[in-house]
Amino acid sequence: MAAATFPEQIPDAARWADQHHYLSGEALSNAIMEDNVPWDPSVQALLPFPSVLDTMASNMGWTQDLGNAFLAQHEDVMDAVQRMRHHAYDYGYLRTNSDIFVAPGPFIEIRPVRAEFVVVPSYDPAVVFVRPRLGFVVGGAIRFGYGVTLGVAFRPWGWGLNRIAWDSHAVFINNVRWDRNWGNRAVYVHPYEVRHVVPAPRVEDRHELEQRSEKEREDERAGRARAEEHRDERRDDHH
Fold first, then answer.
1. To 5 degrees, how large is the angle CA 72–CA 123–CA 172?
2. Residue 56: which residues within 8 A CB-CB, separation 6 or more?
3. DSSP E strands: which ranges in 47-133?
4. Model-level pTM?
5. CA dihedral 81, 86, 89, 93 (to 10 degrees)
6. Is the pLDDT reported for residue 199 higher than 50?
7. Rounded-to-10 torsion of CA 177, 51, 108, 125
8. What's the maximum distance between 2 C-alpha atoms anywhere in the chain?
9. Among 100-114, 153-167, 208-222, the range of highest mean pLDDT
10. Cα(192)–Cα(16) distance, integer angstroms
11. Which pLDDT does position 214 carry in this prediction?
12. Whole-angstrom Cα distance, residue 120 to residue 144?
């Protein structure tokens, strides 16, 4: 929901994620840092999930509508999420399994069984939010195609410290309440702690610098020698 409020950044982020889909864990985190990607950290946080970014980029109208709605009416958006979760739960589709824990109640919470392993659900809204036909088996309606392990390497993007307080309609990213809205959307900056890493010069780079410095010194010495020769020539001509 936070990333959708930056829809203009989604297509480029989706392309980057697709081009680096073979990376994971610390290698992916390092690539994000080293490339100094310019997008908001909420968008960067989705780079481990190329399929999610691809879905958002493939339907930019929907993504922009979601972002605008979350900026202007975030409480209504969160209430809508809960209504749809209750439909899926009441119809038997949304249940605890080996990947997720579903906590029923006034506010249905969905948490990963392993905090660092986030799974991506796949389902047909026309199925899971509609009362099943008599005799229809609901067990496999919501599938989890793959999951991503997000350890300490992704802590700078808030993973492990993100949560939603449904009762107060508050979203916490990197353990800080996310307060971007329609009125402050042009100036609000969430206090993430993403630090870009400037790699140390390679050994070859340092060697090249030393060689260049030595050449510059040689050129300087040659220049001084030529200048002295010219002065001597002028002095001889004068005499």
1. 40
2. 3, 4, 10, 14, 46, 62, 63
3. 100-103, 109-112, 117-122
4. 0.76
5. -50
6. no
7. 130
8. 118
9. 100-114
10. 21
11. 63
12. 6
pLDDT in tens, 11-31: 999 999 999 999 999 999 999
Best CA proximity match to 74, nearest among 140, 13, 164: 164
Cα separations in angstroms, 93 against 27, 39, 46, 106, 157 = 36, 35, 26, 17, 31
At 112 the three-state DSSP class reads strand
pLDDT tens digit sequence for 133-163: 877 767 778 888 778 998 888 988 888 888 8
Structure tokens at 142: 């919501």
| Mean local confidence (pLDDT), 172-200 | 81
Give me the amino acid identity at 163: R
pLDDT reported for residue 162: 86
> CA-CA distance, 131 to 89, in Å (whole number)?
10
3-state secondary structure of 226: helix
Q: 108 — phi, psi (to 5°)? A: -80, 125
Q: Extract the tokens encoding 64.
A: 């922009």
* Residue 235 CA from chain centroid, whole number: 71
- pLDDT band at residue 226, thresholds of 50, 70 and 90? low
Q: What are phi and psi of 208, to 5 degrees?
A: -65, -40
Residue with the two structure tokens 């809508």:
80
